[in-house]
Design brief:
With 268 residues, the protein is an alpha/beta fold. It is built from nine helices and six strands. Strands 1, 2, 3, 4, 5 and 6 form a six-stranded parallel sheet that branches. α1 crosses α5, α1 crosses α7 and α3 packs parallel to α4. The longest helix is centred in the N-terminal third of the chain and has 20 residues.
Length: 268
């Protein structure tokens, strides 16, 4: 089983690489769940941004896996233009039966993350993919407009991200055998009625606390944190640099640069 996670760093407002950090957490969630099941699974993280104006590259990214997950930032109140441009290149693509999901990072809880996800799901469905979420939850990870410092992920949101990652393996098992899917769900603790037994603080810490701290560490120690992520996942986990892209000048100036009156800081 091959899972491909597509991310689009940078985003549009900061230099924190929020969607990239969330994608690292998602990959870890898939890999950890596969290890619990002793399942031979490979989870790849691919930078999708350079492919947005080349349909063959877009098709290759989406066709070259058994399951696809898209990590999208948010711009304004919905999808960033570059994610839409990527998905517009899917005309004629045939993904019948391929499981696919998505998650988003956004400024706040009510700043368009759900719209970015609905846009993405609709485009994937238009290619014939079978989209899914964790139960009825749209996985949006807000990083502002809350009590935590700007940029920090919250353990509750990381727990939902982890559950979505584990749901990938449930959906994969259920494709050919629904009973097997239910068995995998029980083994991984994935339950559509999660709200009847929502984790308390101690359980959140046990299941998502370390992962949340790892996802937040690049905010204070980027070099060290991404080095540890690279060791953890077995590939270079540093965020990409977009300045060399031919359309780099189309990105809006990040909020931090606007407020400081300086030059653009590439962010996500």
């Amino acid at each position: 089983m091959t899972v491909r996670v597509l991310h689009f760093s940078p985003g549009t407002a900061t230099d924190r690489h929020d969607s990239h950090r969330a994608a690292l957490g998602f990959v870890h969630g898939v890999v950890s769940a596969a290890a619990e099941l002793a399942l031979d699974a490979v989870c790849r993280l691919d930078w999708a941004l350079p492919a947005i104006d080349e349909a063959p590259r877009v098709h290759a990214l989406l066709e070259g896996a058994d399951l696809v997950a898209i990590a999208t930032p948010v711009h304004g109140q919905g999808s960033p233009w570059f994610v839409r441009k990527f998905l517009e290149q899917t005309r004629g693509l045939q993904l019948w039966g391929m499981p696919a999901t998505a998650f988003a990072t956004s400024g706040g809880t009510h700043t368009g993350g759900e719209m970015a996800l609905l846009d993405t799901f609709r485009s994937l469905q238009g290619c014939g993919a079978c989209t899914f979420t964790f139960a009825q939850k749209l996985t949006v990870l807000p990083v502002q407009q809350r009590l935590r410092p700007d940029g920090e992920f919250d353990p509750v949101d990381v727990w939902f991200l982890r559950q979505l990652a584990r749901t990938c393996l449930v959906q994969w098992a259920a494709r050919s055998d629904r009973a097997a899917g239910r068995s995998v769900a029980r083994r991984l603790g994935v339950d559509t009625a999660y709200y009847l037994d929502f984790p308390d603080a101690a359980r959140l810490e046990a299941e998502a606390g370390a992962l949340c701290r790892w996802m937040n560490e690049p905010l204070s120690d980027p070099a060290g944190a991404y080095g540890r992520w690279s060791h953890r996942l077995g590939f270079d986990a540093r965020p990409p640099e977009p300045q060399g892209l031919p359309f780099a000048g189309l990105f809006p100036v990040p909020q931090a640069a606007r407020h400081q009156g300086g030059e653009a800081n590439w962010g996500s």
